[in-house]
Write a structure and sequence with these properties.
Strand order of the largest sheet: 2-1-3-4-5
Distance between the termini: 32 Å
Helix content: 40-55%
Order of helices and strands: EHEHEHEHEHHHHHHH
Radius of gyration: 17 Å
Structural class: alpha/beta
Largest sheet: 5 strands, parallel
Length: 203
């Protein structure tokens, strides 16, 4: 089974690649931009599954997905650490093989890849029903949707610059959201905010 992972975050790309490469029947290629991924599909494809980071350079939202689907003949999935359910729903409607949150456990990721390679469409139920889950958690009711996304990113250890890029906002806007989120959680700093979120089972 041949898999192409395309993500501009080296640590994320390497981690996903390592998870999949542990499987004896999976060979993994990597790319760090959409243009690189598309070139690999054109020269070495089709792949059994292509996984594209929704926010990486060159994606242009779902335009990159559509182009990759045509070039690979299907079996192209999106992965993201910040895109909400509406993006996942649009991607699946466009024919994506699946939508993968970056918070997925390694075993779940491998299962999802095999599921998609078999021609099935994958999207985790927990992610697709997150709006209902968010509203039911006491901490979530304190936060705006943007603050909730920022807190998710803080739990992943992202910098303000990285968060700004993922949410498509200015870095100064992220700083404001971080400040208001810390205040609402009574957290002294980013690390404590992440610990509070995890300890209370928000994520």
């Amino acid at each position: 089974m041949r898999i192409l992972i395309a993500d501009d975050h080296e640590l994320v790309r390497d981690a996903i690649s390592a998870f999949l490469a542990r499987e004896s029947d999976i060979d993994v290629d990597c790319a760090d931009t959409f243009d690189d991924a598309h070139s690999r599909i054109e020269s070495d494809g089709p792949y059994d599954v292509v996984i594209l980071d929704y926010q990486m350079p060159g994606m242009n939202a779902l335009d990159g997905l559509k182009l990759a689907l045509r070039s690979n003949g299907g079996n192209v999935a999106l992965i993201s650490g910040s895109a909400d359910k509406s993006v996942a729903e649009r991607a699946l409607a466009e024919g994506a093989a699946g939508f993968l949150p970056k918070t997925m456990a390694a075993k779940s990721l491998v299962h999802a890849v095999r599921f998609m390679a078999a021609g099935e469409q994958y999207a985790p139920i927990k992610y697709m029903t997150q709006d209902e889950e968010e509203s039911s958690h006491p901490l979530a009711t304190l936060l705006t949707r943007r603050e909730f996304r920022v807190l998710q990113a803080l739990c992943r250890g992202l910098s303000n610059k990285e968060i700004a890029r993922e949410l498509h906002v200015q870095e100064v806007t992220v700083k404001v959201h971080v400040k208001t989120t810390l205040r609402k959680l009574n957290a002294r700093n980013r690390t404590q905010a992440a610990m509070i979120a995890r300890d209370t089972g928000l994520f």
